[in-house]
């Protein structure tokens, strides 16, 4: 932690993190559509979806527990965990999958050669491959967000924590001559979440909501035993 | 324009790809070409405009990101009191309604027979006089069926219908009419009151799907989040009672699978216990009325008919009575039976018994925003459809039918009989923006703008603790040759009365109305209106920081509990049929939006189609495999859909989502899945006339062929095995089942 502070006078580097409170998540999927809209995620259509080729950077996993009538359904929003020790990174032969200084698992699309090693190595199935070129029936293409690249056939893609929104937030702060404030930057999923189950912020700022919430006694990481050190902390759902 | 845009996108694509490479941004930024010389538009810089969502009637505030004149993304307006910056899946998908490839691009006139669905484009100068002429010379009555309208548009439309001596009806596939009728009887008010869920600490829901598309979904979502984790050391408890473990039930601490139609009886049982244990906080004078309502049931009967044990009922009553802020809320399935009105009276009465009316965490009412003047328009209940069709046929009157943004031919069952009302019409004109099953029968279509292309306003009223009037403003130039309904109405009025009086245009009318309101009410009345108006548009509307609470008064709770009626003998039709609105597609309105078609159903992970849900034990007994095509028979018809083994469902119930099975409505919706409404019996809630959608009994017939079921979940995990993520972490709990 100490070495990340940098020399005095330099702004402290960011470490982007997310907290997902499962006690608030209602599985409404506002986040899923927000992600599609923000990130130009292509439509797959029924045929490709049936082949398992639908792309969702964020999905709501649903687990059934118990037997009728004492059955429960639990939800877990799963997206790229932006692991500090990411299994997807060392296997990429062309360094398309790499770690940014701010803690993001980035995917450089124009380096990607589509070997899919990273996808195979991701324990969270957070990476998805483009098996065909995206297509929008006109005039649907007019909705495309010009801030985000449209990915072509043969490219691996994944959640970026909305890196374009992070950049915009930082540029805005720079223009206004101030540091980035907690809550300035929200990925599309976090922005839309009605119950505020998703919270995003700078883990290096000890006063940020995300840093405080991550210390909650309810916190856990997905597949913690694998030692991937995810940037996403889940807070357990409470049951009485 | 198009080529320029593509160049532009391409260039920006490069910027975005480059953003991940540190140090490259300066070079890349120079690549952005200034291709659009318009002074107002800075390429690459987004403008955000405030407006109001129109996907449902909640009236959430939105801000729309516009770049180079195109809408790019819809987010919640952080200043708006209803949704506070948040927005649901449907609201965000409104963008695909704007840019939908199957949107109507201009006025159409039908050529050939109705069944042929052939239309030719006409100009507005042909279409408007034709409709005015038809209305002037019609021998039958003018009937307009519209989605619920609010604000100035509601006024304009109802004045127009009044001027031609017609009748205007609001039609919504699930307007919760039994709940409205019960609220009117219990409290003597017309609109639904506000449920203060954020402050409640024990929510007892009788089927109310408040975490799905119900009344005001985003504001309920916000309140739910606060109730759970928004208060220090106080986490609200939530019990949900419904035959199916719905998306809402999944978030409950406890789900109780009640026998269909027995929600009211359970409420009576709980109320009975509260009263007999002297846990009531009713004034003594009020007690006898409640004792006569709740006193007539015995706990044995309640347990037997509801299929909920006496111990559980006692537990519910005890927790409800002991909570500081208990809240009983009914809706959804509690509105789906012939006894729905009485059920809701019993459910609402529980709140009165524990005295949580007009209290934080209870049922409250607030003074409405001053702009609300819209006239009282009757709902078109399914029973009213039936009565209307019969009356017109008996008197041999052929109505002139006007339609706006609603699709009764899809969402009302054929048994009602909605088709006869349409068949009997002498002329049908529609103002809807897409060719749905109802609009495709029209002789003339004069399509409305999309919400993002038009002016309007919306008065927030119901089921929300917020008093606000929200503004709708155009954020993009209309894509096609469409016209706002308000302007169409003003034009038609002028043609019919031959005068040139009245407002110039609908936008002018809105502005005038807000100006009048402003000068009489606002604290900024001394300022020039133009600057206030710009501020209002920038903010997205007008809301007050303090709202005045109006006390609710108990007027009456007298009701005789009636057992629910069902259609179909148990011998032939042993299973309850339970159609429910698909959370992603609503009642089918979202089916033409590809984002919503591809949005996996949270409970099943199904996309792009229909399915039926069956308890795994029932499925095993009947030999129905997951994914196998099943035919569901009622006395009124049959539907085919693939089976999904659904652990959270009573073994005597077949559930099916409503929303698919369109025959028209564009490329994404048409010929996909099946519509469960087509097999429903014409049974109604006795008081309100709403269709009892849960009152049809069915039988299931496996067809021994695979159905077209697309699940995003990995094969073999649906029946409860859980996925790898959980089984690695928690081997014991999730692998206990196979």
3D structure, described in words:
The complex is a heterodimer of chains A (240) and B (738). Chain A is built from six helices and ten strands; from the N terminus they run E-H-H-E-E-E-E-H-E-E-H-H-E-H-E-E. Chain A is of the alpha+beta class. Chain A has a single domain (2-235), classed as Alpha-Beta Plaits. Chain A has a four-stranded mixed sheet with strand order 8-1-10-9. In chain A, strand 4 (97-99) and strand 5 (105-107) form a beta hairpin. Chain A is globular and about 50 Å long. Chain A starts with 15 loop residues before the first strand and ends in a 5-residue tail after the last strand. Chain B is globular, with a radius of gyration of 27 Å. Chain B is an alpha/beta fold. Chain B has a seven-stranded mixed sheet, with helices on one face. A six-stranded mixed beta barrel of chain B has the order 20-24-21-23-22-25. Chain B folds into four domains: 1-45, no CATH class; 117-175 and 379-448 and 486-499, Rossmann fold; 182-364, Dimethylsulfoxide Reductase, domain 2 (3-Layer(aba) Sandwich); 575-724, Barwin-like endoglucanases. In chain B, helix 10 packs parallel to helix 14 (340-353). Chain B has 24 helices and 25 strands. The chains are: A alpha+beta (240), B alpha/beta (738). Chains A and B meet through helix 1, helix 2, strand 2, strand 3 and helix 4 of A and helix 1, strand 3, helix 4, helix 8 and helix 9 of B.
